[in-house]
Amino acid sequence: MGGKKWRWGVILDAGSSGTRLHIYRWKDPEKALKDASPEELQSLPRLMTEKKWTKKIRPGVSTFGDAPSKVGPAYLQDLIDHALDVIPQNKIKDTPIFLMATAGMRLLPKKQQTALTQEICYYLRKNTDFSLPDCDLHIQVIEGETEGLYGWIASNYLLGGFDNPDKHQHGKGHHTYGFLDMGGASAQIAFAPNSTEAAKHADDLKLLRLRTLDGSPAEYKVFTATWLGFGANQARESYIHNLEDLYSESATELPDPCLPRGLRTTLDGELVQRSKTRKPTLIGTGAFDECLKQTYPLLGKDKPCEDNPCLLNGQHVPAIDFDVNHFIGVSEYWHTTHGFFGGKGDTAYDFATYQKRVKDFCSQDWNAIRSKIDGRRAHDAKNAQEACFKASWLINVLHEGIGVPRIGIEPVPTANVSKGALEHAKQKGFLEPFQPVDKIDGIEVSWTLGKMVLYAAGQIPPKSRDDTYPVGFGSNLAGVTPPDFQFAGSSWKPVGGHYLGNQTHGHIDDDDDWDAEDILDKAKSKSASGFFAFLLILAFLLYFFRKRDRRMRVYSRINSLVRKFRRPGGNGRGKNFPLRSPLDTITNKLFGRTTLSYERLMEEGGGGADRFELGEVESDDNEYSDSSDGSGSRFGHSSGLATPKLGGMGGMYHDRNLLSRTESRERLMLPPHLQVGRRSRAGSPTRMKSPLVTSPLDER
């Protein structure tokens, strides 16, 4: 029964250089509520993942633009098989799967994008049982702004900026962190501006709606922007084109200050020997300062800015207050600072230290560098070739483009923060304006985590029934769901009729693995216990009443008690209450006396028959229905007791010498208090069908 309290999610990050599978797990919201502390109730769902739950394949999915039919069996199936090895079989159908493509796919023509996404959805639906109800929502090419927002969610989720604002006060009431991401083809930024800038640029912000475990809404106003073509690989291509333009078309050797000294490559980055070739060749000079100068124009700082202020390429971005906006950088920001240039024990980014390491590395002869990486992974040589360019590009984007202070050279803004917040930030290493990261508390910082956090939050019921605003994000419009709102992709529903938002979750079973199978097991256990108890009681009764004298003495005592409860008149029965006492039935069965278990009711005379017809009896079981024309089964209104039919009995009843013709109606012997208000079947010509069993959601 283990593992049934968990929910799972699968997301495929289809980037420009490859596709990476991410699997996440979190506790079912109803079960998480049972043992949640007050602090946890005000937090987002807690997601978990493991390194072995991830897998990356190369190249990028965009390489199948001309052959979409091959993307499934030749590419995706390997990732699917890995997911099936991790997620329990009985959870597959309830596990959502997403494939979200980023910059690599954005560069493809729209027609190819559509063909690929449709083929991927068709293949996943046909070959897996994962939950994929909406192709457009689950399989899509996401915008760069969306990718940045997901990354912002993931960063603040892992750092605790959402759950513990008091521990993350950066000053001026600000407690969230900014997010920077750079891949192969694009770069993103996402941050919450300070209050002044937020009011000034309200129309430029995204309204993000989350939901904490207790169902309370949590709203954030975030600015996001993307620069397509500003990823490290795309920027390198632009740089090579500029080099070609710088030299004459007849030149076969192009000096490249962004390559280590003596390194010779083709324009595509392939190593070449010192042999004659007609193809243009790049020759490394290892001049890093010159490299910085030649990569600077790629920032597009000279592009016109239509909406001030702007950063890269004329893109509008609200002014960044680095007193309170502390950024973390992932992907290339991490790999480029901690690959060949990272030192042991580095916890924070220091510009002066970093630039010195880059210069020392890039000025080396290529043969010396290669001797140090021989025997290591094959792609290490490729990374070493590109390291100097990527370092220059990152430095320019970070400091010349975005404006992050050069820590170690320029003065660092000091925020007016509390002592507790200062100590917490120092422990995390995120007090400075910029910090490259790969993992936080052992979990990889990836925008995919942000997407799944949003999905998990969407499964939590709202605290108030009046809260109809969904989980997701869209334009910054207060009090309404904007037309461009992107939903979390998940929904909530109460289980067992319990509405979590009204704090009725306390009625949920205390078993962490509560589900339908558990109920059956418990029912079987209780049934078995009751059966054995019944056998013990029956054995005792048989032993006690094995002698006739004992039975008769007990019967005599019970019979005397029975008479005290009977109404006076007519042989111990009321004129209008012809039913025997339930104790009669018990004693008759127990002691062997027999009587008829039904009586005929007068239709005329006495006036009692029309007052004691059977009333409507609703059934909880809709397996049977009862129709007014008699064509349906009558079990829908059955009380659970079959009414015996009279056979060989006349249709006349004699009472005080008065003969009245009656229909042959049978009546169960019920106690008097159950007769009131009941009507006979004959008196109900338009009997209603049993209502269908509806869920709590249907009733709403």
UniProtKB/TrEMBL annotation:
Annotated ATP binding sites: 184-188
What are the Basic and acidic residues biased-composition ranges? 653-668
Q: Which parts of the sequence are annotated with region: Disordered?
A: 618-700
A Gene Ontology cellular component where this protein is annotated is: Golgi apparatus
This protein's name: Nucleoside phosphatase family-domain-containing protein
Q: Name one GO molecular function term.
A: UDP phosphatase activity
User: Is-annotated flag, keyword Nucleotide-binding?
Assistant: yes
Keyword terms: ATP-binding, Hydrolase, Membrane, Nucleotide-binding, Transmembrane, Transmembrane helix
Q: Which residues cross the membrane?
A: 528-545
Q: Which family does it belong to?
A: Belongs to the GDA1/CD39 NTPase family.
Its ancestry begins with: Eukaryota, Fungi, Dikarya, Ascomycota, Pezizomycotina
Residues annotated as the enzyme's active site:
147 (proton acceptor)
InterPro entries found in the cross-reference section: GDA1_CD39_NTPase
Biased region (Low complexity) positions are 627-640
- Coiled-coil region(s) at which residues? none
